């Protein structure tokens, strides 16, 4: 008998809707965060986001840490480091370049994991399509800060590492325990970086409230939606829906921040989205599916 009653398993339509809500929440949260950069640095805001989500996850999971062996801790420490650096690099990136472009470049990370995991020659076509998208982004070089692009690439590499480490963490830590501990690790890792910021995010209650709101939009809401949706959706279906992230990020940048993209940049985003959908549909399902982190 299943441990989850049928009444708690959403319909397929509801599950798809939950994933879309999660995607919209992540990208709207990122857009909202960008409007706050005049008041708090990207480093301070990403710390507040991670701290607020870590507190919620720790309260919900109450992870069991006693009796853990050395490998358990090495895995969760790596998981937390990838989570922290990914978010820090991503916020540094979209503080310099449009959100849609930052997410598009960052998405090369999970796309690479999907393609390399399939080991099929035909999937090289998806790599080529994604590469074409990146080249098209470079065609509008006047709009792209090289440092912002570099940070997006770092975030993409950390996203790939996060995906690879998530399955190991899921096998060694029960339920949300691993994610909760990893989130705490990410916060501790980034705490020393606050010393280099011009504004202390802890000194202003208003900024604290904004940071908590960003954490809710970018972490708590999407992860909760995805956790429920994955009870119904197959890994491939979930991956295809998550491939909409770059387009959703571009729309959030347009609607929330007013970031206008050139036609070539929209075409580039389309190339990466199609490449991600194609790679996801042709890749074999993973041994154990866990929700990837929201981008942004």
UniProtKB/TrEMBL annotation:
Entry's localization field: Cell membrane
Bilayer-spanning residue ranges: 12-32, 44-61, 73-91, 97-117, 124-141, 147-165, 177-195, 207-225
This protein's record includes keyword Membrane: yes
Keywords: Cell membrane, Membrane, Transmembrane, Transmembrane helix
Domain EamA: 16-138, 147-278
Gene Ontology CC annotations of this record: plasma membrane
Protein's membrane topology: Multi-pass membrane protein
Pfam families: EamA
Protein family (similarity comment): Belongs to the EamA transporter family.
PANTHER family: EAMA DOMAIN-CONTAINING PROTEIN (PTHR42920:SF5), OS03G0707200 PROTEIN-RELATED (PTHR42920)
Name of this protein: EamA family transporter
Protein species of origin: Nocardioides silvaticus
């Amino acid at each position: 008998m299943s441990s989850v009653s049928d009444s708690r398993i959403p319909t397929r339509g509801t599950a798809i809707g939950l994933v879309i809500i999660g995607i919209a929440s992540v990208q709207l949260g990122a857009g909202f965060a960008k409007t706050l950069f005049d008041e708090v640095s990207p480093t301070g805001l990403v710390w507040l986001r991670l701290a607020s989500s870590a507190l919620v996850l720790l309260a919900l999971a109450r992870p069991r840490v006693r009796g853990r062996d050395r490998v358990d801790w090495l895995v969760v420490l790596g998981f937390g480091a990838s989570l922290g650096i990914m978010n820090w690099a991503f916020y540094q990136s979209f503080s310099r370049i449009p959100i849609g472009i930052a997410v598009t470049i960052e998405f090369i990370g999970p796309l690479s994991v999907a393609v390399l995991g399939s080991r099929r020659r035909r999937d090289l076509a998806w790599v080529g399509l994604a590469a074409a998208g990146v080249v098209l982004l470079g065609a509008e070089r006047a709009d792209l800060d090289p440092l912002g692009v570099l940070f997006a690439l770092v975030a993409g590499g950390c996203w790939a590492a996060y995906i690879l480490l998530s399955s190991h963490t899921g096998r060694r830590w029960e339920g949300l325990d691993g994610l909760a501990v990893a989130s705490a690790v990410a916060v501790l890792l980034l705490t020393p970086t606050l010393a280099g910021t011009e504004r202390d995010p802890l000194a202003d209650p208003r900024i604290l409230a904004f940071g908590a709101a960003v954490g809710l939009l970018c972490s708590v809401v999407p992860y909760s939606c995805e956790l429920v949706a994955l009870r119904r959706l197959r890994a491939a279906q979930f991956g295809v829906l998550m491939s909409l992230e770059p387009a959703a990020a571009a729309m959030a940048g347009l609607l929330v921040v007013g970031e206008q993209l050139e036609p070539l940049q929209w075409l580039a985003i389309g190339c990466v989205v199609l490449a991600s959908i194609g790679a996801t549909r042709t890749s074999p399902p993973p041994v154990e599916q866990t929700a990837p982190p929201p981008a942004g």
